[in-house]
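This part of the workshop introduces the protein records we will be handling. A record pairs a protein's sequence with a compact description of its fold. Backbone structure tokens are a discrete shorthand for how the chain folds in space. The question running through the whole workshop is how a given chain folds. The record below serves as our worked example for the rest of this section.
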Amino acid sequence: MKKHNFYAGPSILSEYTIKNTAAAVEDFAGMGLSILEISHRSKEFVAVMDEAQALVKELLDIPAGYEVLFLGGGASMQFCMVPYNLLKKKAAYLDTGTWASKAIKEAKLFGEVAVVASSKDKNYTYIPKDYLVPEDVDYFHITTNNTIYGTELREDPSVKVPLVADMSSDIFSRPVDVSKYDVIYAGAQKNLAPAGVTLIIVRTDALGNVDRPIPTMLNYKTHVEKGSMFNTPPVLPIYSALQTLKWYKEQGGIKAMEKKDKENAAILYDEIDRNKLFKGTANVEDRSIMNVCFVMNDEYKELEADFNAFASGRGIVGIKGHRSVGGFRASLYNAMPKNSVETLVEAMKDFEKQH
């Protein structure tokens, strides 16, 4: 039986992506070879890379002057690559959760970091508002979606300095005004591909402006100049990413994804707010539509393990909250079918009836 997959990442992929990737593992592009064993320099794979980069540009309506890169190292590598390439003296960061704080830690190795606001005081359950970004910084860094705490920034900020965003867990879930950003980066294992590749969108004129020497592999210019082929790229995840991008286009593009994601999230949040056993953890106005975080109401805390087991019996997997916060987390990435969300809601209703 196919499970209802709510894992936060690596996470659910579309059937289209899985089937096409599986077929390519058997025989890629009619070559009589597996995608696992072909040269990344072969014309067949170069065509995959070119098409994937072009589709990212098309789907996100990326203007001229930007390059799309597919690199290894995960979003965590970008925590240091961004300041290595962009930070001359001082950068500003918004602290909205675990991944934002990890990015701040790395940036401090390269210069002064101004944390313009933080929601740590309330365990990252909200997105700070009304903060001021200093105008003397080299860039302002945000984390648009906070997977562990279930908060999300669903609008592109307007600031007077270069903008950088970690969009690992919500890229392709809404239209983005890319022209507002110097760098956007995203680990692929939530809305794009299996783990192992990272998507970076970089404004080319933002590069080459720091005085420090940058190691070859950590220099964005290296990868721009070599078309993400300076070293062997993660071939299989890039092929899977191409399938996901094709699927997005078939589904009607990013606006269609956003509509579906909002509908799925509303179904689940409505039940959390109605059900006497559960309560949401994030401020209502900042709730993520990608990662829905909730807990048992205080008087029902002892039922947490029981509900996990109950849901598991319905084929529901991956709803246990992050080990640092507990409770539950249902991740509703783009590939999440509506019937899986409805199955979880039905389980919540049936469990409530028993208690």
Q: What stands out?
A: The mean pLDDT is 97. The chain is about 35% helix and 15% strand.
